[in-house]
Amino acid sequence: MTQPSDKALVPFVSVDHMMQLIHRIGIGPMLQGLAEYIEADFRRWELFDKTPRIASHSAEGVIELMPTSDGEVYGFKYVNGHPKNTREGLQTVTAFGLLADVGNGYPVLLSEMTILTALRTAATSAMVAKHLAPKGADTMAMIGNGAQSEFQSLAMKAICGLTTVRLYDTDPAATRKCAANLAGHGLTVVSCTTPEEAIEGAQILTTCTADKQYATILTDNMVGSGVHINAIGGDCPGKTELAPAILHRSDIFVEFPPQTRIEGEIQQLDADHPVTELWQVMTGAAPGRVSDRQITLFDSVGFAIEDFSALRYVRDQLADTGLYHALDLLADPDDPRDLFGMLQRAAP
Ligand code: NAD
Protein backbone atom coordinates (compact mmCIF):
# COMPACT_ATOMS: atom_id res chain seq x y z
CA MET A 1 0.00 0.00 0.00
CA THR A 2 1.43 3.41 -1.01
CA GLN A 3 1.98 5.82 1.88
CA PRO A 4 1.16 9.49 1.24
CA SER A 5 4.27 11.70 1.15
CA ASP A 6 4.69 14.32 3.89
CA LYS A 7 4.14 17.18 1.47
CA ALA A 8 0.70 15.78 0.61
CA LEU A 9 -0.45 15.45 4.23
CA VAL A 10 -2.57 18.38 5.33
CA PRO A 11 -2.69 19.41 9.02
CA PHE A 12 -6.33 19.24 10.15
CA VAL A 13 -7.42 21.00 13.35
CA SER A 14 -10.50 19.23 14.69
CA VAL A 15 -12.99 20.77 17.13
CA ASP A 16 -11.30 18.85 19.95
CA HIS A 17 -7.84 20.08 18.96
CA MET A 18 -9.12 23.67 18.60
CA MET A 19 -10.53 23.52 22.14
CA GLN A 20 -7.22 22.16 23.47
CA LEU A 21 -5.31 24.90 21.62
CA ILE A 22 -7.54 27.61 23.15
CA HIS A 23 -7.05 26.19 26.66
CA ARG A 24 -3.30 25.90 26.13
CA ILE A 25 -2.97 29.55 24.97
CA GLY A 26 -5.73 30.89 27.26
CA ILE A 27 -8.86 32.48 25.81
CA GLY A 28 -7.87 36.08 26.69
CA PRO A 29 -4.38 35.88 25.13
CA MET A 30 -5.81 34.04 22.13
CA LEU A 31 -8.41 36.77 21.53
CA GLN A 32 -5.63 39.37 21.82
CA GLY A 33 -3.44 37.41 19.40
CA LEU A 34 -6.27 37.07 16.90
CA ALA A 35 -7.05 40.79 17.12
CA GLU A 36 -3.37 41.58 16.40
CA TYR A 37 -3.35 39.31 13.32
CA ILE A 38 -6.66 40.76 12.06
CA GLU A 39 -5.46 44.34 12.57
CA ALA A 40 -2.16 43.55 10.81
CA ASP A 41 -4.10 42.23 7.81
CA PHE A 42 -6.50 45.22 7.83
CA ARG A 43 -3.41 47.44 7.61
CA ARG A 44 -2.34 45.71 4.38
CA TRP A 45 -5.94 45.62 3.08
CA GLU A 46 -5.15 46.91 -0.39
CA LEU A 47 -3.03 43.93 -1.41
CA PHE A 48 -5.78 41.37 -0.72
CA ASP A 49 -7.99 39.86 -3.37
CA LYS A 50 -11.50 40.85 -2.20
CA THR A 51 -15.00 39.82 -3.21
CA PRO A 52 -18.35 39.86 -1.41
CA ARG A 53 -18.97 36.35 -0.08
CA ILE A 54 -20.84 33.94 -2.29
CA ALA A 55 -24.17 33.23 -0.61
CA SER A 56 -26.69 30.51 -1.36
CA HIS A 57 -29.95 31.54 0.29
CA SER A 58 -32.88 29.29 1.18
CA ALA A 59 -36.12 29.83 3.08
CA GLU A 60 -34.44 28.55 6.27
CA GLY A 61 -30.99 30.11 6.08
CA VAL A 62 -27.86 30.69 4.09
CA ILE A 63 -24.69 28.78 3.13
CA GLU A 64 -21.72 30.96 2.21
CA LEU A 65 -18.20 30.69 0.80
CA MET A 66 -15.74 33.39 1.85
CA PRO A 67 -12.51 33.44 -0.20
CA THR A 68 -9.53 35.80 -0.17
CA SER A 69 -5.78 35.83 -0.88
CA ASP A 70 -2.79 38.03 -0.07
CA GLY A 71 -0.93 36.77 -3.17
CA GLU A 72 1.08 34.19 -1.22
CA VAL A 73 -1.58 32.38 0.76
CA TYR A 74 -5.18 31.69 -0.27
CA GLY A 75 -7.98 31.05 2.23
CA PHE A 76 -11.67 30.32 2.29
CA LYS A 77 -14.34 29.58 4.86
CA TYR A 78 -17.53 27.57 4.46
CA VAL A 79 -20.16 28.92 6.85
CA ASN A 80 -23.90 28.58 7.34
CA GLY A 81 -26.47 30.75 9.13
CA HIS A 82 -29.75 29.05 10.10
CA PRO A 83 -31.61 30.93 12.89
CA LYS A 84 -34.16 28.09 13.34
CA ASN A 85 -31.41 25.53 14.03
CA THR A 86 -31.25 26.10 17.79
CA ARG A 87 -34.87 24.93 18.11
CA GLU A 88 -33.72 21.60 16.63
CA GLY A 89 -30.68 21.34 18.90
CA LEU A 90 -28.28 22.51 16.16
CA GLN A 91 -25.95 25.52 15.97
CA THR A 92 -27.12 28.65 14.10
CA VAL A 93 -23.61 29.07 12.66
CA THR A 94 -21.11 26.29 11.83
CA ALA A 95 -17.97 26.61 9.75
CA PHE A 96 -14.71 25.12 8.53
CA GLY A 97 -11.91 26.71 6.54
CA LEU A 98 -8.74 26.15 4.58
CA LEU A 99 -5.44 27.86 3.78
CA ALA A 100 -3.48 27.01 0.63
CA ASP A 101 -0.10 27.89 -0.86
CA VAL A 102 -0.72 30.19 -3.85
CA GLY A 103 2.58 28.97 -5.37
CA ASN A 104 1.45 25.38 -5.96
CA GLY A 105 -2.20 25.42 -4.89
CA TYR A 106 -1.65 22.74 -2.22
CA PRO A 107 -3.71 23.17 0.97
CA VAL A 108 -1.51 23.84 4.03
CA LEU A 109 -4.21 23.84 6.74
CA LEU A 110 -7.77 22.60 7.17
CA SER A 111 -9.56 23.64 10.35
CA GLU A 112 -12.84 23.61 12.17
CA MET A 113 -14.08 27.19 12.23
CA THR A 114 -17.29 27.15 14.29
CA ILE A 115 -15.38 28.01 17.46
CA LEU A 116 -12.76 29.96 15.50
CA THR A 117 -15.50 32.11 13.91
CA ALA A 118 -16.88 33.00 17.35
CA LEU A 119 -13.33 33.96 18.43
CA ARG A 120 -12.52 35.96 15.28
CA THR A 121 -15.89 37.76 15.31
CA ALA A 122 -15.35 38.73 18.93
CA ALA A 123 -11.71 39.73 18.33
CA THR A 124 -12.80 41.89 15.37
CA SER A 125 -15.55 43.56 17.43
CA ALA A 126 -13.11 44.37 20.21
CA MET A 127 -10.38 45.55 17.82
CA VAL A 128 -12.92 47.93 16.27
CA ALA A 129 -14.23 49.07 19.68
CA LYS A 130 -10.64 49.82 20.72
CA HIS A 131 -10.54 52.39 17.90
CA LEU A 132 -14.13 53.69 18.10
CA ALA A 133 -15.64 53.26 21.58
CA PRO A 134 -15.56 56.27 23.92
CA LYS A 135 -12.41 56.53 26.05
CA GLY A 136 -12.72 54.62 29.31
CA ALA A 137 -15.74 52.57 28.16
CA ASP A 138 -16.13 49.87 30.78
CA THR A 139 -19.74 48.67 30.44
CA MET A 140 -21.38 46.79 27.57
CA ALA A 141 -24.99 45.83 26.95
CA MET A 142 -25.02 42.36 25.37
CA ILE A 143 -28.36 41.86 23.63
CA GLY A 144 -28.71 38.31 22.33
CA ASN A 145 -27.09 35.80 24.69
CA GLY A 146 -26.56 32.91 22.27
CA ALA A 147 -23.43 31.14 21.02
CA GLN A 148 -21.42 34.29 20.26
CA SER A 149 -22.20 36.20 23.46
CA GLU A 150 -19.54 34.95 25.90
CA PHE A 151 -16.83 35.33 23.23
CA GLN A 152 -17.97 38.92 22.54
CA SER A 153 -17.88 39.74 26.25
CA LEU A 154 -14.46 38.19 26.90
CA ALA A 155 -12.89 39.86 23.85
CA MET A 156 -14.12 43.28 25.03
CA LYS A 157 -12.57 42.51 28.44
CA ALA A 158 -9.23 41.28 27.04
CA ILE A 159 -8.81 44.00 24.40
CA CYS A 160 -10.78 47.05 25.60
CA GLY A 161 -10.70 46.68 29.39
CA LEU A 162 -14.44 46.02 29.80
CA THR A 163 -15.40 45.40 33.43
CA THR A 164 -19.20 44.99 33.31
CA VAL A 165 -21.56 43.23 30.90
CA ARG A 166 -25.34 43.68 31.07
CA LEU A 167 -27.15 40.73 29.48
CA TYR A 168 -30.55 40.57 27.79
CA ASP A 169 -32.20 37.92 25.62
CA THR A 170 -35.86 37.27 24.79
CA ASP A 171 -35.18 33.76 26.09
CA PRO A 172 -34.25 33.97 29.81
CA ALA A 173 -32.61 30.52 29.56
CA ALA A 174 -30.03 32.00 27.16
CA THR A 175 -29.24 34.79 29.65
CA ARG A 176 -28.90 32.26 32.50
CA LYS A 177 -26.51 30.16 30.35
CA CYS A 178 -24.40 33.20 29.41
CA ALA A 179 -24.23 34.49 33.01
CA ALA A 180 -23.23 31.04 34.31
CA ASN A 181 -20.53 30.65 31.62
CA LEU A 182 -19.07 34.09 32.35
CA ALA A 183 -18.85 33.49 36.11
CA GLY A 184 -15.22 33.41 37.25
CA HIS A 185 -13.91 35.25 34.16
CA GLY A 186 -13.41 38.56 35.98
CA LEU A 187 -16.42 40.44 34.60
CA THR A 188 -19.30 41.86 36.63
CA VAL A 189 -22.33 40.24 34.99
CA VAL A 190 -25.78 41.82 35.33
CA SER A 191 -28.77 39.84 33.99
CA CYS A 192 -31.57 42.12 32.75
CA THR A 193 -35.21 41.49 31.89
CA THR A 194 -35.66 44.19 29.24
CA PRO A 195 -33.38 45.63 26.56
CA GLU A 196 -33.92 49.09 28.10
CA GLU A 197 -32.54 47.83 31.43
CA ALA A 198 -29.56 46.22 29.63
CA ILE A 199 -28.43 49.48 28.01
CA GLU A 200 -28.51 51.50 31.26
CA GLY A 201 -25.05 53.01 31.79
CA ALA A 202 -23.51 51.08 28.87
CA GLN A 203 -21.10 52.89 26.54
CA ILE A 204 -20.92 49.89 24.17
CA LEU A 205 -24.17 48.39 22.85
CA THR A 206 -23.76 44.98 21.22
CA THR A 207 -26.64 43.42 19.32
CA CYS A 208 -26.09 39.75 18.53
CA THR A 209 -29.50 38.22 17.87
CA ALA A 210 -30.57 35.72 15.23
CA ASP A 211 -33.81 36.18 13.35
CA LYS A 212 -34.41 36.04 9.62
CA GLN A 213 -36.25 39.37 9.38
CA TYR A 214 -35.92 43.16 9.64
CA ALA A 215 -35.93 43.16 13.45
CA THR A 216 -35.75 46.19 15.74
CA ILE A 217 -33.52 45.18 18.60
CA LEU A 218 -32.60 48.81 19.32
CA THR A 219 -35.16 51.58 18.77
CA ASP A 220 -34.05 55.16 18.15
CA ASN A 221 -34.94 56.41 21.65
CA MET A 222 -32.75 53.70 23.27
CA VAL A 223 -29.53 55.10 21.79
CA GLY A 224 -28.04 58.12 23.56
CA SER A 225 -25.22 60.27 22.26
CA GLY A 226 -21.62 59.16 22.63
CA VAL A 227 -22.15 55.39 22.55
CA HIS A 228 -20.50 52.80 20.32
CA ILE A 229 -22.84 50.25 18.71
CA ASN A 230 -21.40 46.85 17.81
CA ALA A 231 -24.09 45.40 15.52
CA ILE A 232 -23.27 41.75 14.86
CA GLY A 233 -26.52 39.93 14.08
CA GLY A 234 -27.70 41.79 10.95
CA ASP A 235 -25.60 39.98 8.37
CA CYS A 236 -27.89 38.82 5.56
CA PRO A 237 -30.28 40.38 3.05
CA GLY A 238 -33.57 40.93 4.92
CA LYS A 239 -31.92 40.36 8.36
CA THR A 240 -31.18 43.53 10.36
CA GLU A 241 -31.33 44.65 14.01
CA LEU A 242 -31.41 48.46 14.16
CA ALA A 243 -34.15 51.03 13.55
CA PRO A 244 -33.17 53.05 10.43
CA ALA A 245 -33.32 56.32 12.43
CA ILE A 246 -30.30 55.12 14.46
CA LEU A 247 -28.31 54.71 11.26
CA HIS A 248 -29.05 58.30 10.27
CA ARG A 249 -27.67 59.55 13.61
CA SER A 250 -24.52 57.40 13.51
CA ASP A 251 -21.14 57.48 11.83
CA ILE A 252 -21.05 54.07 10.20
CA PHE A 253 -17.91 51.92 9.92
CA VAL A 254 -17.82 48.79 7.77
CA GLU A 255 -15.51 45.99 6.67
CA PHE A 256 -15.96 45.72 2.87
CA PRO A 257 -18.65 48.09 1.51
CA PRO A 258 -19.74 45.95 -1.50
CA GLN A 259 -20.60 43.11 0.92
CA THR A 260 -22.01 45.25 3.76
CA ARG A 261 -24.35 47.15 1.37
CA ILE A 262 -25.99 43.78 0.61
CA GLU A 263 -25.90 42.20 4.06
CA GLY A 264 -25.47 44.82 6.78
CA GLU A 265 -27.68 47.33 8.60
CA ILE A 266 -26.97 49.75 5.74
CA GLN A 267 -29.08 47.67 3.35
CA GLN A 268 -31.84 49.84 4.88
CA LEU A 269 -30.17 53.03 3.53
CA ASP A 270 -29.57 54.54 0.09
CA ALA A 271 -26.71 52.84 -1.78
CA ASP A 272 -24.61 56.03 -1.64
CA HIS A 273 -25.02 56.71 2.11
CA PRO A 274 -21.51 57.56 3.37
CA VAL A 275 -19.63 54.89 5.33
CA THR A 276 -16.01 54.63 6.49
CA GLU A 277 -13.92 51.56 5.72
CA LEU A 278 -12.34 50.23 8.90
CA TRP A 279 -8.95 49.50 7.33
CA GLN A 280 -8.61 53.23 6.70
CA VAL A 281 -9.16 53.94 10.40
CA MET A 282 -6.45 51.36 11.23
CA THR A 283 -3.95 52.94 8.82
CA GLY A 284 -4.83 56.51 9.89
CA ALA A 285 -6.19 57.38 6.41
CA ALA A 286 -9.66 58.12 7.88
CA PRO A 287 -10.71 59.41 11.30
CA GLY A 288 -12.35 57.11 13.86
CA ARG A 289 -14.17 58.69 16.81
CA VAL A 290 -13.80 62.47 16.68
CA SER A 291 -16.13 63.63 19.48
CA ASP A 292 -17.62 62.57 22.82
CA ARG A 293 -21.17 62.98 21.54
CA GLN A 294 -20.74 61.04 18.31
CA ILE A 295 -22.54 57.69 17.89
CA THR A 296 -20.16 55.25 16.20
CA LEU A 297 -21.64 52.11 14.62
CA PHE A 298 -19.70 49.04 13.57
CA ASP A 299 -22.05 47.45 11.02
CA SER A 300 -20.43 44.01 11.28
CA VAL A 301 -21.19 41.27 8.77
CA GLY A 302 -17.92 39.32 8.96
CA PHE A 303 -15.42 39.47 6.10
CA ALA A 304 -13.14 36.83 4.53
CA ILE A 305 -9.92 38.61 5.59
CA GLU A 306 -10.84 38.09 9.28
CA ASP A 307 -11.10 34.33 8.66
CA PHE A 308 -7.83 34.38 6.71
CA SER A 309 -6.12 36.14 9.65
CA ALA A 310 -7.63 33.67 12.12
CA LEU A 311 -6.43 30.66 10.11
CA ARG A 312 -3.00 32.29 9.77
CA TYR A 313 -2.89 32.74 13.56
CA VAL A 314 -3.85 29.09 14.17
CA ARG A 315 -1.26 27.83 11.66
CA ASP A 316 1.45 29.87 13.41
CA GLN A 317 0.51 28.44 16.83
CA LEU A 318 0.38 24.77 15.77
CA ALA A 319 4.09 23.94 15.48
CA ASP A 320 5.28 21.69 18.33
CA THR A 321 1.77 21.35 19.80
CA GLY A 322 0.80 18.13 18.01
CA LEU A 323 -2.75 19.47 18.10
CA TYR A 324 -3.69 18.34 14.60
CA HIS A 325 -4.22 15.24 12.49
CA ALA A 326 -2.10 14.77 9.36
CA LEU A 327 -4.87 14.32 6.80
CA ASP A 328 -4.51 12.16 3.68
CA LEU A 329 -6.50 14.71 1.65
CA LEU A 330 -4.50 15.01 -1.58
CA ALA A 331 -3.75 12.29 -4.12
CA ASP A 332 -0.05 12.82 -4.79
CA PRO A 333 1.53 9.98 -6.85
CA ASP A 334 5.35 9.78 -7.04
CA ASP A 335 5.04 10.25 -10.80
CA PRO A 336 2.65 13.24 -10.98
CA ARG A 337 1.20 12.02 -14.30
CA ASP A 338 0.54 8.50 -13.06
CA LEU A 339 -2.61 9.05 -11.02
CA PHE A 340 -4.22 5.97 -12.53
CA GLY A 341 -1.17 3.82 -11.81
CA MET A 342 -1.36 4.82 -8.16
CA LEU A 343 -5.02 3.77 -8.08
CA GLN A 344 -4.19 0.49 -9.78
CA ARG A 345 -1.37 -0.34 -7.34
CA ALA A 346 -3.81 0.16 -4.47
CA ALA A 347 -6.09 -2.64 -5.72
CA PRO A 348 -6.80 -5.15 -2.93
P1 NAD B 1 -27.70 32.03 18.52
O1 NAD B 1 -28.91 31.52 17.78
O2 NAD B 1 -26.87 31.08 19.30
O3 NAD B 1 -28.14 33.21 19.53
C1 NAD B 1 -29.02 34.23 19.17
C2 NAD B 1 -29.77 34.68 20.41
O4 NAD B 1 -30.58 35.82 20.06
C3 NAD B 1 -30.73 33.63 20.97
O5 NAD B 1 -30.40 33.36 22.31
C4 NAD B 1 -32.10 34.27 20.81
O6 NAD B 1 -32.99 33.93 21.87
C5 NAD B 1 -31.75 35.75 20.86
N1 NAD B 1 -32.75 36.64 20.30
C6 NAD B 1 -33.50 36.48 19.16
N2 NAD B 1 -34.31 37.57 18.99
C7 NAD B 1 -34.03 38.42 20.02
C8 NAD B 1 -34.52 39.71 20.38
N3 NAD B 1 -35.45 40.32 19.66
N4 NAD B 1 -34.01 40.31 21.48
C9 NAD B 1 -33.05 39.69 22.23
N5 NAD B 1 -32.56 38.47 21.94
C10 NAD B 1 -33.05 37.83 20.85
O7 NAD B 1 -26.82 32.78 17.42
P2 NAD B 1 -25.27 33.22 17.51
O8 NAD B 1 -24.40 32.14 16.98
O9 NAD B 1 -25.00 33.79 18.87
O10 NAD B 1 -25.27 34.37 16.42
C11 NAD B 1 -25.98 35.58 16.67
C12 NAD B 1 -26.08 36.37 15.38
O11 NAD B 1 -24.78 36.81 14.99
C13 NAD B 1 -26.62 35.57 14.20
O12 NAD B 1 -27.56 36.37 13.53
C14 NAD B 1 -25.42 35.29 13.34
O13 NAD B 1 -25.76 35.18 11.98
C15 NAD B 1 -24.59 36.53 13.61
N6 NAD B 1 -23.15 36.38 13.40
C16 NAD B 1 -22.50 37.43 12.84
C17 NAD B 1 -21.13 37.37 12.66
C18 NAD B 1 -20.40 38.54 12.09
O14 NAD B 1 -19.22 38.42 11.76
N7 NAD B 1 -21.02 39.68 12.00
C19 NAD B 1 -20.42 36.19 13.02
C20 NAD B 1 -21.11 35.16 13.63
C21 NAD B 1 -22.48 35.26 13.82
From TrEMBL:
<protein>
    <submittedName>
        <fullName>Ornithine cyclodeaminase</fullName>
    </submittedName>
</protein>
<dbReference type="Pfam" id="PF02423">
    <property type="entry name" value="OCD_Mu_crystall"/>
</dbReference>
<dbReference type="InterPro" id="IPR036291">
    <property type="entry name" value="NAD(P)-bd_dom_sf"/>
</dbReference>
<dbReference type="InterPro" id="IPR023401">
    <property type="entry name" value="ODC_N"/>
</dbReference>
<dbReference type="InterPro" id="IPR003462">
    <property type="entry name" value="ODC_Mu_crystall"/>
</dbReference>
